[in-house]
Amino acid sequence: MPAYKAPLRDMKFLLNEVFDYPKHYASLASGENATPDIVDAILTECARFCEEQLSPLYQLGDEEGCTLKDGEVTTPKGYKEAYNQYVMGGWQGLSAPEEFGGQGLPASMGLMKQEMMGTANWSFSMYPGLSMGAMNTIFLHGSDDQKDTYLLPLTEGRWAGTMCLTEPQCGTDLGQVKTKAEPQTDGSYKITGTKIFISSGDHDLTENIVHIVLARLPDAPKGTRGISLFIVPKFMPGADGSVGERNAVVCGSLEKKMGIKASATCVLNFDGATGYLIGPENEGLECMFTFMNTARIGTAIQGVGPAELSYQWALDYARERRSMRALSGKKEPDQVADSLIHHADVRRMLLTQKAIAEGGRAMLYDAARLADHMVEGHAAGDTKKAEKYDDKLGFLTPILKGFLTELGNEAASLGMQVFGGHGYIREHGMEQIARDTRIATLYEGTTGIQALDLLGRKVLLTTKGGAVRDFTARIANFARKHLTDSRLRPFALDLLKLTAQWNLLTVRIMLAARKDRDVVSSASYDFLMYSGYVTMAYMWARQAATAVNCLDNGGDDSEAFYTTKLATAEFYFERLLPRAQTHATSMLSPSRNLMQIDPENMAFTG
């Protein structure tokens, strides 16, 4: 059975040498205890937990799946024991406020933990991962009583959380939500309706589950303006914090899915369940965005994770499997054939996986610093600071989620390809990575929705192109500093050209959209992918610049490590970055070629 090894060397390179996290943590109130020694110890221990506890359950959980009997869900064998180990290790409260039982470490530490857990076993990681969004929502929008009731058991991991948005008649278009909330004389509400696709909607890992539910009040306006947010526990909390009577919410069925089969994806039926309003009436969608942004950043990990896992297993296989001779001559003359890794096309696939995994990880860690400042602003009541960093992170969120999950699917497919026919059978685990990864481009907003959010909302509507101008200015400032170094000049020149092009493309789409609104939708996917390739190029250039500095002045790792970083950056710029130009051409193509065929003429059958 394949095994996962945490990429600690690459993680520490980004943390300590590329992004200078020690300096970053020193600037945060929550970073007081995030000293280099403590961070290193936490990462090492988390790696051990993921390698020894979670990775062995990955394929076993897929084989067994979850089961539903009498409205109760049972997780696969070993999951409850692993979750108990997770709780005992205090992992759920790593970045939670100390006042509610957490360790008070920066939010980015939780992201790094989630990356390792998600790579080792994405199905398992979804159970505590959904709880984090519920905790953040209650912390930011809940009343003092709600915080006192729910945050401590959620932080300790004794209770879990969910996000209940989607209904049978609506997915992304939440304006169609029909779940009702009837006010009661005691200040509670009776919640009635059906929610579908609810990750971790029911399970046997915790003593209680706290559902965060979108519903409508009787006099609510139509559309998204009339949605409120409610806390609906599976079991009613007792006054002493204990678990009381069962609430009227039941798992009606488990979704039969392509992948992540060990993650319970439920249909939940609320039949007059007791719920409590969280946040202002009819502003539930605004409050839910706290959950959504958390979920989308977390989902972006499912682009990096499968690329990393598939790369690790494909690399091992390519080193061991022998087939034919390399075109440049025998590499292993004492063997019957040369290893796959000596063939250039196999190298193409492996390096693509490597560039996606390590470039995507850099994108996540760069964004995580913004998340740290945003969370600190919220915690300190500094609205101005929180909004500033929320805006910066908001621009990157759809790029992270949409672009990285698309590339994660590509990397998983390439891993299967390296294995050839063996990649298609279940024994080696490669087809499971591909199945598990496919959902990442769909949930928490499909790639198309992320693209519309990026171009339509963040770039054109909200900032009039300002978000692109601000981010490209940051890239250009970096590039100019490295024009004089011959090793970095090619990267810097490409980045300067791309920043100018990115702004020009934005202006051209903005002007075209004045005459044809469909341009925004028709250009959005290519705009997102272009944005992703340029952003990853920036991250690879930063890694290359750091590698050059370490080669010249000494670093924490070996010379081979840094030269490999430079070579991978060169591969990315020369082999993958050119894809951006295809997207640039496509996004300027008129919407006419998409919309001119009448719907009834899309197919001629019979």
From TrEMBL:
Residues 471-598 form the Acetyl-CoA dehydrogenase-like C-terminal domain. The keyword Kinase does not apply. Residues 163-271 form the Acyl-CoA oxidase/dehydrogenase middle domain. Its cofactor is FAD. SUPFAM superfamilies: Acyl-CoA dehydrogenase C-terminal domain-like (SSF47203), Acyl-CoA dehydrogenase NM domain-like (SSF56645). InterPro entries: Acyl-CoA_dh-like_C_dom, Acyl-CoA_Oxase/DH_mid-dom, Acyl-CoA_Oxase/DH_mid-dom_sf, AcylCo_DH-like_C, AcylCo_DH/oxidase_C, AcylCoA_DH/ox_N, AcylCoA_DH/ox_N_sf, AcylCoA_DH/oxidase_NM_dom_sf. It comes from the Bacteria. Keywords: FAD, Flavoprotein, Oxidoreductase. The keyword Amino-acid biosynthesis does not apply. Residues 282-453 form the Acyl-CoA dehydrogenase/oxidase C-terminal domain. Residues 41-157 form the Acyl-CoA dehydrogenase/oxidase N-terminal domain. Belongs to the acyl-CoA dehydrogenase family. This is Acyl-CoA dehydrogenase C-terminal domain-containing protein. It comes from Marinobacter aromaticivorans.
